[in-house]
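Running co-folding for adenosine-5'-triphosphate.
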Amino acid sequence: MKSKVNCHNLKGGFTYEAYFKCRGCRKKFGDFKAVSELNFKVNKGEIIGFIGHNGAGKTTTLKMCVGLLRPTKGRILVNGVDIDKNPEIAKQKIGYVSDNPPLYDKLTAREFVEFMYNLYTQEKKHENLNELEERMNDLFYAFELNEKYDELIEGFSRGMRQKVALIAALIHEPEILIVDEPTANLDPISARITKDIFRNLAKSGVTVFFSTHIMEIAESICDRVVIINKGKIMSLGTPKELIEKHSDNQLTTLEDVFINLTDSTNKYIVKSSILKEGD
Ligand SMILES: Nc1ncnc2c1ncn2[C@@H]1O[C@H](COP(=O)(O)OP(=O)(O)OP(=O)(O)O)[C@@H](O)[C@H]1O
């Protein structure tokens, strides 16, 4: 299917190389270790997908990456800026959408997005209003929400809310977009639009990371995938590399690799080989 979305205007507009580092990050909640010793680096314009079971530590990792959770140990660097030491500078570079994004029901979609823009751009408030208007139009159009522009958010479906949250995260032209389960509430066309927008953002230099349970999405758009299990990185690489690395075990899809690395009972792999024998 060819997407009709035109998002050629969604430019990054950077003056320097953006990159991201997570160095030795751990997170404990009381005595419980949710995430241990995470080390990874993301380059400018890369799309990285985190895949893992429920409770694997994806949301905790993403929240540490955006500065909403302070690591118990380790550092997060956004283009060299330590998010703990200089949170305002680091956070300005990031657009974030949580798995259940909080929106203000009594604002219209346009008012909410303007509000978010003003939060991120205090010092340039009221400047470049035409540019802001143009970018809002582009984003609302790209997400096929242009007819809802002036409607109250309280009347929006979950998918529409997800799109407003994505638009609000992109309005200040972040260098890094971090999204927890971007397609969770979206219909297939909206999911496709979101994937196209991620690809376009990455082409223009924006780094994108997201978590997902959907292997097809990870496989189709991610430059690299991080498989996370019980708070630890089990494997990191391009989908092709991960499949090749495990080809000895006759694993031929990212889903097989994921299950093999994260399902300690291996019951699904066993089951699939029994099915093959029965063919
Ligand atoms: N605030 C908290 N206090 C205590 N434990 C927490 C807290 N937040 C997360 N956890 C625990 O940390 C672990 C990782 O949770 P996290 O939300 O990061 O998983 P996840 O991979 O995003 O899961 P899902 O796919 O279900 O969203 C889980 O065992 C969870 O119960």
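Result summary
Residues 29, 32, 34, 52, 54-60 surround adenosine-5'-triphosphate (CB under 6 Å).
The CA atoms of residues 243 and 254 lie 6 Å apart.
Job closed.
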